[in-house]
Amino acid sequence: MDKIKVLIADDQTLMRDGLKTILELESNIEVVALAKDGIEALTLCAKTEPHIVLMDIRMPNMDGVEATRRIKKACPETIILILTTFDDEEFIVEALSHGASGYILKDIEGDALIKAINDAHKGSFILPSKIAIKLAGTISKTTKKSQDTSLALLALSEKETEIAKLLAQGFTNKQIASALYISGGTVKNYVSNLYSKIGISDRTAAAIYIKSLI
Q1: End residue of a domain, out of 120, 138, 156
Q2: What total of structural domains would you count in the chain?
Q3: Which residue, among 74, 182, 71, 175, has the nearest Cα to 82 in the 3D structure?
Q4: CA distance 44 to 8
Q5: Segments forming the whole domain that contains residue 169
Q6: What is the pLDDT along the chain (214 residues), one digit of tens a residue?
């Protein structure tokens, strides 16, 4: 069985080494590189081609948000999980918009970390409930623009805007089709175009990002 290759990017040596120790106890995980900042993470990603990057947000020289943007542009298949503390919510939507596949709190238990990595590798979006609640509160407090005005910034058509709003409410493609009286195939095409415009291909991440705009 092929191992899940992981790169750890964190400016704290203790955090890097601690995560490495935990992960290397797993037979299906291999830590291929350690990076102390975003610049090093970007360079090492190109060299080691990890499946997953555990990316700290607050790092010198290049922070985790910018590193996420650059890595996803250069290596779009790379899965990036943001390492965060409970107080980093201002960065969450921005990192999601650049293609992060979820968040992991730095106080996570070892078993939960292993599960998150395995789940992310299978395509799941990782968002701890505490972060989701915090994010929802941040969005509700900071959002002042109307739905139409905010979504218009993405140059969405009227139909795309309708679908974006329903997607943000958690509607499935089938439910959207029923609500708008269009076919499931048409909805699928609209959602695909929407993903392309916002630069996010994960449905949960896209929904959270759209909620930040409405």
Answers
A1: 138
A2: 2
A3: 71
A4: 10
A5: 144-211
A6: 689 999 999 999 999 999 999 999 999 999 999 999 999 999 999 999 999 999 999 899 999 999 999 999 999 899 999 988 756 666 777 787 788 888 888 888 999 999 999 989 988 888 776 666 666 555 555 444 444 445 555 677 888 889 988 998 888 999 999 999 999 999 999 998 888 877 777 788 788 878 767 6
